[in-house]
Design brief:
Blueprint (H helix, E strand, L loop, with lengths): L2 E8 L7 E8 L6 H11 L20 E4 L2 E4 L10 E5 L6 E3 L2 E2 L3
The chain binds FE2/S2 (inorganic) cluster.
The site of FE2/S2 (inorganic) cluster has 12 residues, from loops.
Length: about 100
């Protein structure tokens, strides 16, 4: 089965910040946000991420650090067998997991 590995920051300001590895089935054309949705549906529904439009960078709510660079999770395509680290934005106050304060 084709798959990707997503290393996702978990935790909040009251717990330890942790990097958790998830193995996610790869589907051609899937976005990193699709991978996060798969984790929420199949492994841990408490994984926090902010989004609205789910495409086209219209709402800009899914912005995160992807392998150290700012990117939109909904428009960043996953590549088969890739290993990707996803962290909350460093420039905004952290709330939980991938969620930061909106201004
Ligand atoms: S969900 Fe709206 S820009 Fe990504």
């Amino acid at each position: 089965m084709a798959k990707i590995k997503l290393n996702v920051v978990r935790g909040d300001s009251e717990t330890n910040r942790d990097l958790v590895e998830y193995e996610v089935p790869f589907v051609e054309g899937m976005s990193l946000l699709d991978g996060i949705f798969w984790i929420r549906e199949h492994i841990d529904p408490s994984l926090s991420v902010r989004y609205s439009c789910r495409s086209a960078n219209a709402c800009k709510e899914c912005m995160a650090q992807v392998d150290g660079k700012v990117a939109f999770l909904c428009s960043t395509r996953a590549e088969d067998e890739s290993v990707v680290t996803i962290e909350p934005l460093k420039t905004k106050a952290w709330v939980k997991d991938l969620t930061t304060v909106m201004e």
